Amino acid sequence: MTAAPEPQAGSAPEKRLFIKTYGCQMNVYDSERMADVLRPLGYGVVDSPEGADLVVLNTCHIREKAAEKVYSEIGRLKELRAEDPASAGMSIAVAGCVAQAEGQELMNRAPAVDFVIGPQAFHKLPELIAQSGKTRSRARGERLSSEFAAEEKFDALAGPAAARKVTGPAAFLTVQEGCDKFCTFCVVPYTRGAEFSRPAGAILDEARALADQGVREVTLLGQNVNAYDGAPGGLAALVRALAGVPGLDRIRYTTSHPRDMDAALIAAHGEVEALMPYLHLPVQSGSDRVLKAMNRAHTAESYLRLIERIRAARPDIALSGDFIVGFPGETDADFEATLALVRAVRYASAFSFKYSRRPGTPAASMPDQVDETVKAERLARLQALLEAQRQGFNAAVVGRTVPVLFERKGRFAGQVVGRSPYLQGVFAEGPETLIGQIAGVEITATGPNSLSGRLAQNTADQATAMMEPA
Ligand code: 5AD
Ligand code: SF4
């Protein structure tokens, strides 16, 4: 491995870095870490591409639309570079899963792109830039995307040169990456590679460093986070260890596979106070025939039994899921089975998608692809049901006082925004000094996307006292 370029702290002129993130939370984490590896080279993050020295598109390949958006964005950046003198020196890097899956095609189809760098190679961005001699390398061909070396990446990111800087009291923390499940619709095993778990020691070090920066909540990330095996005892043991980190009051994890939801993890939901009562557990379909064709390794019934066990451990848990409608061969009856499963579970939130044919995946070449209009109709029906459940879950919180971790200022003066244990956004009137604190909020109303409430009396008093001069 070539050494990373020497940090040029102080002497380096400030360079403007704009990162646009698509897709999942792991990409959000990766984008933050890209900013961390580029900071020693003098790059500071800006919030628009105009005048940027380097624009990174951190891309998602999960559905067709996601990849198409990237090509449109490259077109816009190309125009900006040609027309805006302040942006003439801009380099364009494509990172993430489109870079991994379509590296060569990207280079051919989008000559405006200077660097292509896959999800396991972004720690080498400084090297790539240094090798090009200047930020903008028209001598293209630098494509670091084909190998999967998650371990090397995490080792590099753990070094002092890429010290992690966070803003705000809630942070993501990648603990596992990749997938060995090979659901027949999914590109992830091809773009993120095989399952890899970071050693628990490195995760705990990162968590302590986050807590030192005021982080109170971590969301542990992994494509199959509950397959985590970087410590004896798996994810449950990791969660218990993290709960002991001073300052960390809340722990979440996502995304899980029903197959890896073991007894120890279920028990942790009932026993570890810091583990928040929210679980994203994708099921994809309620039809056993479709689940089999998807290679999901669970049935509707086994999923429902699992939910029962989780609810027995933590009765108030908020459940979330992912659904695909219009998988090849899905009939009306299969779709009705999905609706029936949703009714049985009662989700607090969910993500649902029309099946998107991904080149190279087994489902793409299955017979009986479903008509787009049928997919659209099914999606609308499913989303109406899920939305009604979400609203019902939110309405049930009205009148209760819930602890809210305040994360930022609201849109209106005097307002602060945070999250409930159930991951609901909550607005309240209160001083900015509440940001970074957990305070009781009596929920008074539900809006389309969030709840509002008033600070519980003792918290409001504390907040006022905090504002008054000593
Ligand atoms: N088409 C539609 N949705 C997909 N997902 C993954 N691959 C596809 C696809 N080809 C959805 C699944 C997964 C979520 C992250 O994205 O529901 O859980
Ligand atoms: Fe994709 Fe299935 Fe792996 Fe999830 S478990 S990342 S849906 S292959």
Biggest β-sheet description: 6 strands, parallel
How many domains?
3
Bound ligands: 5'-deoxyadenosine, iron/sulfur cluster
The CATH class of the largest domain is Alpha Beta
Instruction: Indicate the CATH topology of the largest domain.
Output: pyruvate-formate lyase- activating enzyme
Briefly characterize the structure.
With 470 residues, this protein is α/β, with parallel strands linked by helices.
Your description of this structure?
The protein is an alpha/beta fold and about 475 residues long. The chain has three domains: about 1-150, Methylthiotransferase, N-terminal domain (Rossmann fold); about 150-395, tm_1862 like domain (pyruvate-formate lyase- activating enzyme, Alpha-Beta Horseshoe); about 400-465, Nucleic acid-binding proteins (OB fold (Dihydrolipoamide Acetyltransferase, E2P)), CATH 2.40.50.140. The chain is about 35% helix and about 20% strand. It contains 14 helices and 19 strands. The chain has helices at about 25-40, 65-85, 95-110, 125-130, 150-160, 190, 200-210, 235-245, 265-270, 290-295, 300-315, 330-345, 370-395, 455-465, and strands spanning about 15-20, 45, 55-60, 90-95, 115, 145, 170-175, 175, 195, 215-220, 250-255, 280, 320-325, 350-355, 400-410, 415-420, 425-430, 440-445, 450-455. The strands form five sheets. Strands 2-1-3-4-5-6 form a six-stranded parallel sheet, with helices on both faces. Helix 1 (about 25-40) links the parallel strand 1 and strand 2. The chain is globular. Mean pLDDT is about 90; it is low at about 1-10, about 135-140 and about 465-470. Bound molecules: 5'-deoxyadenosine and iron/sulfur cluster (SF4). Iron/sulfur cluster binds near residues 179, 181, 183 and 189.
